[in-house]
Design goal:
42% helix, alpha/beta, TIM Barrel, 11 helices, 8-stranded parallel beta barrel, globular, homodimer, 276 residues
């Protein structure tokens, strides 16, 4: 999906919400376990209930891989279901891959050709040749980890280099020469909204994928206050707060309700900032 | 596998060779393509031919994931074949995973319980809580990326912090408080042997997984000169140089020959250093 189309979808729906499909067999309602593919059955119901309020879905690969080959099948079915029924949704494989050039090329084949998602999260540690193989696909995106939302983000991402820049800033600055705001985004955690000021100083036009709103404690208002740009430039993800809103028979309905709430807040913020 | 057992295997075989199972459908001999599972057929033949000379195998996940669910099945069969027929081999899933705590826990479940490998390569960018969930398994290992062998390793791993330490040194030093030399190793590329001096200054007792010997240009003698310790402390990987030594019907035989050559060099070096 191209940047213009992504922005059009945001405007049309008044939402920049991404639902994280972190689907865990141990957390889905019990009555689904008798289905042939419980993971897919859960995802399908969640997608149907939340799609009116979202512009993106983000399956996290760990949740699928934890079931081995069977998990990959559930993932493939989920992506296919989205493609066939909700072609306006931006699909992000949250895989945080990163390997040397020829291997990165294989991951690109895996995610952009075989699975056919729109974007893949990539870890920057191995540098340029671990990232560029993903950039040669028209309408496909790399979403590079910059500043994550977990406690461990303090360990290496915040190291200050000898010029006074932090490693996450070095990652954004250096990688901006490899890709551009039409094929590269950054993961920036929402745990401290004011950090978005520093991010916008080095990535003024890029879309940012923002996890950490909700379960991890980030505030949507803060993220928007410091992070929004003319073309929105934000995709805010919520996983557990939406997909596990209820453990009962009404799980999908409850997920839809939570997604609608967030989308309503987003619409108001987009209006306040004269974007819609 | 525990460290003592790994070292015993190295001594008994006079080898610290790991064969990288970077099995690519586009590179395996054509006659295998008519097999029901060509990837597994290739791996099985390579393993049978090289096992006398190796102490470890390292399937790189990218090569399996590029075929989606089918690739995972080939991987599962390969690991099972090794476990059943060569229980003294150390199995490394080269996956370079790294995600927030609860997700890392799922990857641990995937690789250490479902797939049941001995070790997993992990990317350090997301810090402590992305690494520690892998450390709670008896006899299982994290192999943390420190200094990789690709050109992009210069981009972020070599950033000098304000105290004059490079990021890869910070990674080793900080992570040494999370694990210990009995459950954590480091990936250190072989492209410049003298770097092993700097690595040993911060990781005196750790095992190092060393890619980059062979196809990527590293020298075994240099690696051993600067990297070897009393308990060997090295696992040297070769992938393409061994598994694609011949494209003909004799591919397995040729792989065995290349592995035997490297193992013979290793035996000599282990003897020179009074380890065997």
């Amino acid at each position: 999906m191209k940047r213009t189309e992504l922005f059009e979808n945001i405007c049309r729906k008044g939402s920049f919400l991404c639902v994280g499909l972190d689907t865990d067999l141990k957390k889905i309602p019990e009555h689904l376990l008798k289905e042939e593919d419980p993971i897919f059955a859960f995802n399908k119901a969640i997608i149907d209930a939340t799609a009116p309020y979202t512009i993106a879905y983000k399956p996290n690969l760990a949740f699928y891989e934890s079931a081995g080959a069977a998990g990959w099948i559930s993932l493939e079915k989920t992506v296919k279901y989205l493609r066939e029924n909700y072609p306006d949704q931006f699909i992000i494989a949250d895989a945080k891959r990163g390997d040397i050039g020829n291997t990165a090329g294989l991951y690109a084949r895996s995610f952009f050709e075989h699975l056919d998602v729109d974007a893949l999260t990539v870890a920057p540690y191995m540098g340029e040749d671990s990232v560029t193989p993903f950039l040669g696909y028209d309408g496909k995106w790399v979403i590079l980890l910059a500043l994550t939302s977990n406690p461990g983000s303090q360990d290496f991402q915040m190291i200050e280099d000898k010029h006074g820049h932090r490693v996450f800033e070095d990652v954004i600055k250096k990688s901006s020469h490899w890709g551009s705001p039409v094929n590269m985004m950054y993961v920036v955690g929402a745990t401290r909204g004011e950090m978005f000021k520093d991010i916008r100083a080095v990535a003024p036009r890029s879309f940012l994928l923002v996890p950490g709103v909700g379960a991890q404690g980030g505030s949507l208002e803060e993220v928007v206050k410091y992070g929004i740009i003319d073309e929105c430039g934000l995709i805010v993800n919520s996983s557990r707060g939406i997909i596990y809103a209820s453990k009962g028979d009404d799980f999908a309905e409850a997920a839809g309700r939570e997604a609608a709430k967030l989308a309503a807040q987003m619409k108001e913020l987009l209006t306040q900032h004269n974007i819609i």
